[in-house]
Amino acid sequence: MKKKVALFLCLAMLLTLLVACGGKPSEQTSGEIKETSGEGDAAADDSGSMIRYTLTAMPKIDPGVGSDFGSASLIINLYDPLLMPTKEGGVEPWIATEWSVSDDGLVWTFKIRDDVKFQSGNPLTAKDVAYTMNRMLTLGEGFGYLFTSTVEEAVAVDDTTVEFRCKTRNGTLSAALVRLYILDSAVVESKYGEGTYGEQGDYGKAYLLENSAGSGPYKVKEYVANSHILCEQNPDYWAGFDPANPKEFKAYSSNESVTVKTMMQRKELEIVDSYQSAETNEALDAMEGVDIMNTQGGNIIFLILNNSKPPLDDPHVRKALAYMMDYDVVCNDIFPNSVQADSIISNTLRGHKKMYDFSFDLEKAKEEISLSKYKDNIADYPIEVCWIAETPDREKLALLIQAVAAEVGANVKVVKTPWAKVVENASSPDTTPHVTTTVFTGDYSEAGSVLMSAIRSKEVGTWQNCSWINDPELDAMIDESITIIDDAERIAKYEEIQDYLSDKCVLIPLAELIEPIAYQSSYVVWEGGNPENQIPVMGYVLYMRDIKIYPEKK
To answer: Would you identify the CATH topology of the domain 298-512?
Structure first.
């Protein structure tokens, strides 16, 4: 069996190398990086103080809409959060300087800084904070799920005081407020277009698709659909800059490996996304002046299982799939230096508890299938395993599953799907594949963020939450957990939920990832990428105020 697995992995690697050796593309297709001589970026930034990095798709920069890694990496630089996450997993004052909770736990009161201006020059007041929260509650998109269950409304008491009035108690609100990015209400209101939100029209969504309206350290300078977003420093930023912080940054919406290697060689890229293949990273690491930063932000590589689609509607088949995984190969060969995950909650998040002790065991996999309702006809139900087209190492993972499944009589079909299509397919149980290979962590530093975003039925139909579990008892447990004010009691509830889920195997966590990211170490100091300094909240690894660039060292 090991030899067969190794053969499949070798074939996958050979295909990757053949593609990588194919030379420069003859013409750009939608979403590809345009290779340049560097003159265009030099004209945009005379000092050469620009960070350029790659993503897998065009980000959604509206802070009420975007929620994936690429979107978060832009939003955190364009907008200020109400509270700032820390590397220890807590929060610290930012736009809010202090806060208190009423005795009944239903009213949270925040004092707002009086010295912050938006990029428009407008002062940031409590009115803008209330507007931002109420917009999140109305839209119900992106990070809005963190607030819609418990917050009723936000009210500006005066210019520096805002109240969040809750429907129920919310013990996680302060942690979640690292995802409340404050909008300039006057600017957004002036940009309403036609839409479905009554007097608010489209609530500014069309404008915020391509423009920023925040108080953050950077602002949008240029938006080119299916190509890139260029951002420049906000010169009046209240929290200031280090002189070596980049004057501009440019996020490309493509990560095609051949082009990435060429641009890194020419020093036309500073940071490469974490989705490159091991072979590409090895080639990048061999370049003079390029190093690999092994980041650790709490990300887990999951097999998201469609619990509503036969044969994965049977928990025994789901467990069989867990026993089919060769975790040594996953952690050492496909995602080197990673460790097997033992819970759907990363061990970097508060409330983690061991749920699983799965191992590579084909006899147990066969036993689980024999206990299922599909024991006599499992091969008649093809299991579609989707790997995201922009993440080549996940093809190896899908091929590994296919090879092992054949040994237990299961029929696996490997499907390559672009990220945008993965997001689209997740909206319905019928279009969601049986298995999707996905990476994510918490949107804040507690287990509740994963339970809400990836498990609770209220959020179903997103790229994170497409397991289609439909368990009212589970939903009630999660709803209760986030209302608990006492930290110890809330953590205990998280652990109880993990115990409840452990026998159901609703999705399979494979590995706590150590993610290698290539960067230009000869002239870039990337403090936020170091695991010792990294904030365990998605996107903050690319907070530009934690990056320094010295163009004279190129």
So the answer is: Dipeptide-binding Protein; domain 3 (3.10.105)
Of 69, 31, 11, the residue nearest 517 (C-alpha): 69
Sign of CA dihedral 79, 80, 84, 87: positive
Domain 41-75+216-295+518-553 has CATH 3.40.190.10: yes
- pLDDT band for 297, please (50, 70, 90 cuts): confident
The pTM score is: 0.81
Computed over every residue of the chain, the mean pLDDT equals: 90
Cα(314)–Cα(501) distance, integer angstroms: 14
Q: How many CB atoms lie within 10 A of CB 135?
A: 22
Ranges of each domain in the chain: 41-75+216-295+518-553, 80-189, 298-512
Residue 439 CA to residue 327 CA, distance in Å, equals 16
E strands of 407-539, at which residues? Answer: 412-417, 435-440, 507-512, 515-520, 524-526
Give CA–CA dist 63/334, Å, rounded: 34
Q: How far is CA 43 from CA 37, 50, 54, in A?
A: 12, 11, 20
CA distance 105 to 17: 58
All residues at 6 or more sequence positions from 142 whose CB lies less than 8 Å from its CB, including other chains: 60, 62, 63, 64, 65, 66, 67, 71, 136
H helix count then E strand count, the chain? 18, 20
**Segment holding 69, helix H or strand E:** helix 69-78
Give 304's strand partners. Answer: 436, 507
Query: What does the angle CA 323 – CA 417 – CA 74 come to, to the nearest 5 degrees?
Result: 105
